[in-house]
Amino acid sequence: LRLQARISLQAQNKCISLVLPAMTVMSAIDRSRSPKSRAAVLELDEKRVCDKADKADGCQEDLLDGFSAAQIFTSRSSMTGLTYDDLICLPGHINFGVHDVCLSSHFTRKIQLKTPIVSSPMDTVTEGKLAIAMALEGGIGVIHHNLPIEDQAQEVRRVKTYKSGFIMHPVCIAPTCKVADVDELSKKCGFTGFPVTVDGQMGSQLIGLVSKRDVDFVKDRQQTMVSMIMTPAKDLVTAYDGIELPDANTLLQTSKKGKLPITTKEGLLVALVSRTDLKKNADFPYATKDHNSKSLLVAAAVGTRPSDRDRVRALAAEGVDAIIIDSSQGDSVFQHEMIRWIKQEFPEMQVVAGNVVTKRQAKNLIDCGADALRVGMGIGSICTTQEVCACGRAQASAVYNVAKVARAYGIPILADGGISSPGHIVKALSLGAGAAMCGSLLAGTEETPGEYFYAEDGSRLKRYRGMGSIDAMKKGSDDRYFGTAATVKVAQGVSGTVQDKGSIHRYLPYLTQGLKHGMQDIGAKSVEELQRMLQDGELRFELRSAAAQREGGVHGLHSFERKLFSA
Known about the structure:
Layout: H1 2-63, H2 69-73, E1 87-89, E2 105-106, E3 112-113, E4 117-119, H3 128-136, E5 140-143, H4 149-160, H5 179-189, E6 194-197, E7 206-210, H6 212-215, H7 226-229, E8 231-232, E9 239-240, H8 245-255, E10 259-263, E11 269-274, H9 275-280, E12 299-302, H10 308-317, E13 322-325, H11 333-345, E14 350-356, H12 359-368, E15 372-375, H13 385-389, H14 395-408, E16 413-416, H15 422-430, E17 435-438, E18 453-454, E19 460-465, H16 470-474, E20 495-499, H17 504-522, H18 527-536, E21 541-543, H19 546-551
Parallel strand pairs: 4-5, 4-17, 5-12, 9-10, 12-13, 13-14, 14-15, 15-16, 16-17
Antiparallel strand pairs: 1-21, 2-3, 6-7, 7-8, 10-11, 18-19, 19-20
C-alpha cells in the first residue's frame, strides 16, 4: 500500500511537471498571437456595429414616407403631367412658431419680395391702384399693356410717386357742380369730402373744399352749385408740397380739420391728406421699396412688336423697375430679339421673359439674358389655350422642370396661373418657384379696375376676363397670341365674373398667413429652407387619387358657409 501510494504520488508530480511547461508554452503562444486576436475581435465588433447601423438605416428608410419631387417628376415610368391638386405635401417636424416663418423670396435676380405674390398683367386685375397696394403688402404689381403707351406710363408714375398716407389722386369737382351731383359722387366713392378746383381736375388751381357739413342742410340740391356752399381756399388750412407725413398729421391734429390739401406755392393742388385715412393708415413694414429713393417698386408688361420698344422707353423714363415681356408662348425669335434689345439699351433693367413650360424653352430665354421666367401655359381659370391649341403643360410638372434648369443659372421663376388658394402657392414654392403670379385670385378686390355690380341673387361682382378673350383682343392684347394680323381672331380665353373679395389690404394678409401655416406644417422656416428640402429630397410628396382629392375638400355636408378669414 505504501509502495502504491508512493508510485501514485510520483506519477502525479510527473504530470504536474509536464503540464506546467505546456501551460507556459501555450501562454507564450497566446501572447505571441494577441495582436491578431485583438484585430479579429475588433473586426467582429465592427461588423456587429455595422449590422446594427444597417438595421437602423433600414428602420429610417422604413420611416420615410412618400416620395421626393425628383422621384415623382423624373421617373421614366411616369408619362403624366401633374397639377397642384394631383400632389399633396407630407408634414414634417415643427420646432418653430408660425410667426417665425420668413416668406422672403426673389422676383428677379435683383428684386426681392417679402411676400412672394405678384399680380398678373391683366386689364381687369392690375393698374396703378392695385400695384400700390401690392407693393405696400410686400409683393409687386405688373401694370398691363392693353392701353396706350402714355396711359401705361402714367400708371407707373402713379406708383412711383406714391407716398403712404398721401392721397396723390384725389377726386376733384368743379365749382359749377350741383349738390345733387356731389351726393351721387359720395355714394359711388364712399366718402364725402372733395377738393374744388377751377376745372375739376387734379393739378389745377385749388379754389375750395366741400365736405358733408357744407351740403347737409341744402334744400334745393338740384340747383345749388358747389361754389355757393364750399369753404373757400383762403379759409382752408393747407400745406406746401414736400411736407412729411408726421408734420401733416400734426397740422391736422392742431387745426382739428378733416382734410389737408397739399399745394404748390402757386396754389396748384398736388395731394390731399385725410384724417380718417391717417387713422386707418397702418405701418407697412414689408413694403417693396427702392433702397435708395424709398419709392415703391412696380413692374410693367410689354409685347414684342417694334412699337413696344417705344413703350419700354416711356416706362423706363418713369422709373419702372422691371419689364415683363407678355406672350403666351415665350420661346420665339421676337421675344429673343426684344430681350437682347432691352438688355443692350437698359443694362440695369430687370427683364422677366416667358411664358415657358419646358426646359429647352427656359434655356433659350436664359441665354438671351432673362432675369426671371414666367412659367405656365393654358392653365388659368379663364384660359382656353390648351383646349383650342392643344398645347401647354400641367402646371406642377412645368414649375418643377423649369425651376430645375433655372436654378442652375441662378434665375428665379414665377409660377403663373392655376393658383386658386393659399395651398396652391405653398405647392408652387415647394416645387421651386420664387413667387406666384395671380390673376383670378386677386380679381374682385376693391383695388382692381372696374365697377362692382349685383347679380340676381344679390352677390356683389366684378368683371374678369382672360387676355385671350375676344373682348380683350379687341383692345389690343391679340399681340400676346401672335394674332395682330390675323383676319379671324381665335379666342384663347373667356370673359366672366368674380365675387367681391374686399380690400387687398385685408385679403393679402389672409393669403400670407395661410402660406405661413402651410410652410410650418411642412417644417420649413423660410422659402430658402423649403427649396433646400426640395433639392435634398427631404421634402416629401404623394400623388392623390380623385377620391383623395374629394376627401381633402369639404364633403359630407348638406350645406355649409365658407368664410375665408376673420380679421
